Amino acid sequence: MQIPHTVELRPDTGLFNAKLGIWLFLASEVMLFGALFSSLVLLRVGSEHWPHGWEILNVPLATLNTAVLITSSVTMVMSWASLKMHEFGKYKMYMGATILLAFVFLIVKAFEYGHKFELGHFPSTDNFYATYFTMTGLHGLHVIGGIIVNAYFWGPGSKMWKTDPERFTNRIEIAGLYWHFVDLVWIFLFPILYLL
Amino acid sequence: MADAAHSEDIKKHVRTYVMVFVSLMALTMVTVAVSYLHLSIGPAITVALIIATIKGSLVASYFMHLISEKKLIFFVLILTVVFFIALMTLPIGHMSDNLTH
User: Is there a domain that residue A95 lies in?
Assistant: First the structure.
C-alpha cells in the first residue's frame, strides 16, 4: 500500500502530510526546550549569585559556532533550492557542506566541554553548569540527530531522486525544517548562556 | 516554460537567502559586541533577547518559509506560543508567591 499525500496536497489541510507532521513535532520541541528555559529563569532569579556567562564560558568559540550553524542553515536551504532547480550535483555539494559544518560545530563543542572538564567543571558543580551542560547537551544531541538524517539523505536515501524526485525534494524540505529549528534554538541559547 | 518560470522564482529565493545570511551574521556580531559593553542585567537581557528574536524570526520566516505557509501551520504555532508563554510565566508566578509569604 502506498503512503498517501507524500507529494499531492491533502484537500483539507492544503499540505502534504509530512509538512504538518514536522510542524507538530517542532511544536513539541518548543515545549521541551521551553521547559528548560523556564527552569533556567527560575533557578537564575532564585539564586543569590549567578555568574555572567562571559566570565566563565568561551565567547569567541561560541560565536564561531553560531556562525557555523547559521552557515549550515544556508547550505541546507540551498540543498533544497538546488533540487527545486533540478541540480542534483549541487544538492550533493550543499548537503555535504551542511553535514561537515554540523561536525565542525560538534568538534568545537567537544573542545569547550573538554576544557571545562579539565578545569573540574561538571554538571554537578553548580546550578550554572548544570543548566549549561543540560541545555547545550540536549542541543548537541539534536545536532547529532540532524547529522544522521542528513547523512542518510546525502547517501543511500538520495537514490529516491531517480525514482520519485518530488517526494525526495519534500523529504529534504522536512529535514531542512528540523535543521533550521536546531539553528533557531542555538540562536536563543547562545546569548542566554554565554552573553548574559 | 512553466518550469523556467519556477526556476526563476527559486533563484529569487536564493538571493533572499543570501541577504538573510548576511543579516544573521551582522546581528551575531552586534549581539557579541554589545555583550562586551557589560551593560547592567536589565538592558543586557532586553538587547540580547530583541536581537535573538529578530534573528529567530528571519530564520523562521525565510529559511523555514513561514512567510508563505498555510493557515493550519499558523494555527499550530499560535497554540504553541500560548503554551510557551504559559511555561515562561511559571517562574513569575513563583516569584509573586515569594512576595506574599
Answer: yes
